[in-house]
Structures are given as C-alpha cells and as structure tokens.
Fold this sequence. Notes:
Elements: H1 15-23, E1 37-45, H2 51-64, E2 76-81, E3 84-90, E4 94-102, H3 119-126, E5 131-139, H4 149-156, E6 162-166, E7 171-179, E8 185-191, H5 196-217, H6 219-246, H7 250-294, E9 298-299, H8 306-400, H9 407-436
Parallel strand pairs: 5-8
Antiparallel strand pairs: 1-4, 1-5, 2-3, 3-4, 6-7, 6-9, 7-8
Amino acid sequence: MTGSTEPPASQVLSREERIRLSNEWHARPGLRQSPPMRCSHLVSLRNEATVDEARQEFAEFCKKHGVGAPSDTSRQHSISVGSCQLKWEGHTEAVSHTVMVPGNGQPPFSETALDLLDREKRDALTADFLVGVHIEVLAAPGADDPQGYQLASALLASKTLHGGLMSSAHAAVWSAFQLDADGFLRIVVVDLGITEGRLSRLLQRLLEIESYRMLAMIALPRAREAMAALGRMEPELNAVMIRLEQERSEAAQEEALRAITGIAASVEQIVSTHAYRFAAARAYASIVERRLEEVGEEKIGGFQSYTNFLLRSLQPAMRTCDATERRANELAQRVARAANLLNTMVDMVQKKQNQALLQSMNERAHMALRLQQAVEGFSIFAISYYAVGLLGYGFKGMKSAGLPVDAALLTGVAAPLVFALVWFLVRSVRRRLSDRD
Length: 437
C-alpha cells in the first residue's frame, strides 16, 4: 500500500503468540453435565504463590491420577477423575477448583461433589479458601411446587429464600445466602426444562457471580480501616491549621511543617496501599453486575430476587470503597494546600529576613564607602606630606651643594602643587576602577 511503513519489530507476533491469542476465545469453557447433578466450587487466594506454582501443584495432582497435565502457559485445565469432572483455573490473585458429578445418588447436600475427591486433595482445597459453593441441580417437584421453592426451603433449612427464574425461565435458582457449618454457600437449581449447554453456562455464571462478589468484598474491611485512619487524621490537620493561624512564629511554623509532613506521609501510604485493592474491587463488581444481567432473572411472585439481594449488599460496599478513595484523595489535596500555604508563609518570612539583611548590608556598604572616602582623604594628606618631605630634603641637599636656592621657600611653594597632583592621581585611579566595575 502506498505510503505504508514496516511495523516495529515489537508489533510482529510469532506463530505461537497468534495461536495463544486466538485460543483466548476458548480459554474458559464451562464443564458440561446433564441434570440432575451436583457441583462444588472453591476459590483460594494465591497470596505469595505464583500462577506457575499453582499450576505445577495441579499438574502433580493430574500426574498422580494418570491424566493429562496443563501446559506451561495454561490458565485453566479440565480433567476427569473417576465420576468427577474437575476444572482448575488460575486468576489474577486467586485459584479456583470446580467439581461436578452426575446424578443425585444421595439426598441433596448430604454428600457433595467435593466429597468424591480423594481425602488429600479435599483437605488441601478446604484448608484455606475464600469462596465455597455447593450447588444441587434437581428436577422440578411437580405441580404443587412448580418452581421448587418449598423443596429449596426444606433443603436449605430457611424460610427466607432469594431467587427467581433464569436462563430464559428454563431454571429456577434459590439460595438463603447463608454459609453452612463448613463455610459453604448452598444454591438449589430447579430444572424447568434446561438443556445441558444452558445449564453449563448458567452454573458458570452463578459461580463467577459468587467468586467475584467475594473478591470484590475483600476491599470492604480495608475501606473501613482506611476510613477510621482518615477520620483520625482530618482533625489533626484541622488542629495544625488552627494553631498556625493563631501563632505564626518561626517555631510554630516549624512544628506545623513537621506535623503536616507526617500527615502527608500517612495519607500517601493509605492511598498507595489501597489503590490496587479498590481498583480490583471495581473491576470485580463490574463483572458481577454483567453476569447478573446475563442470567436474565425473572422475578417470581413476592420473593426477593437473587439479583436484587446481591446488588443490595454489593453496591453499598463498592460505594464505601469509592467514598474512602475519594476521601483519601481529598485529604491528600487538603494536605498539599496546607503545605503550600505553609511554604508561602515561610517564604514571606524569609523574604522579610532577606530584605532586612539586604538593608543591613546596604547600610554597612554605605558606612564602608564613607570610611573609604575618609581613608582616601587621609591617604592624600599622607602621600602629600611624605612627597613634600622628600622634596624638602632634595632642596636642602641642593643648598648644601652650594646652589643659590632657598630650601624653605621652594618647599612651601611645592606643597600645594604636590597636594593637587596627588589628589588628581588618586581620583583618576578611583575613576578607572569604577569604570572597570
């Protein structure tokens, strides 16, 4: 093409990179299982561990059971272990495991999908997890309970359920949003004619909603801690400014500068420490809101919907995080303005001190000039005195040599002439020095 240029080397993708980017469209396929079925899902924070370390740990589990391990760059991998389907996913700051098993051989929630894994893996997953979810997908009870509310209420042991129709009314989803004794959230999905593909997508969205909701909520206690710290610093800043307004001495300004510097450091520490957490919370909350839209929930009778319940708790938490971040930034701006004001006051004091110093230097220079002029006058008299003395000696020598001269008369006549000559020479030297400066 006319006028085209060769792309930079950094923009040229290798074949492997292009394949990897293309595969991103299929990077997170959901597990597929026909109803009825049960599912367990756990999310654990990686903390100090890297994604590579988490992947290697799962790869060792795969080798132990004789199944294929994930590739070195994979962020998700699905395997079958006995009757279980197990999916591993590596996220930005967490790792998730999803287990699915077909049928409901045991009464709902009496045996979970997680229970079918070997004890070692089960203990490792439940040792320290952030999110735990058990889901039971059941057939519709019948005409007496068309959406399965009574069944879900009995299974979840709660008379207050939240739910609605999802996936184009092909399923009803219910939950009490209360953790069981093991710390797991229980969800009941009632099959109203849902297909395997729809069920896979619905379960994927329900699990992502719960996972990202909890990842977003991590920021809430930190926001409350930051709010408490900011609540202590704001009165401190006000007190400093009040003292500075009442007393503007140099010592008061130095004390105020130390206090403001300390407050500025504390505020900056809060902003820098929580910036990533708050940004991540906003991103996670945005994903939750999109997934809630994607499930297409329809309200059932007078029950509070699944979506409304989650948003009612999530949105205030996110507003608290936003308010904390905004309050920290506003306090940082106030501290910056206070520091600028203090610097202005210090500059004014310094300017006054400099002005006084310059005035003192000017006075000393004026005194030095007058002294120099006085010394200059004395110098003229001194030089003239010695010059006339030398001439007098000369005239006396001439008289002693027999010349007809009157030494006293000549000395008296030469005295004013010598004085005038010395005065002229000194003035000329001073004028040349002044012109050179």
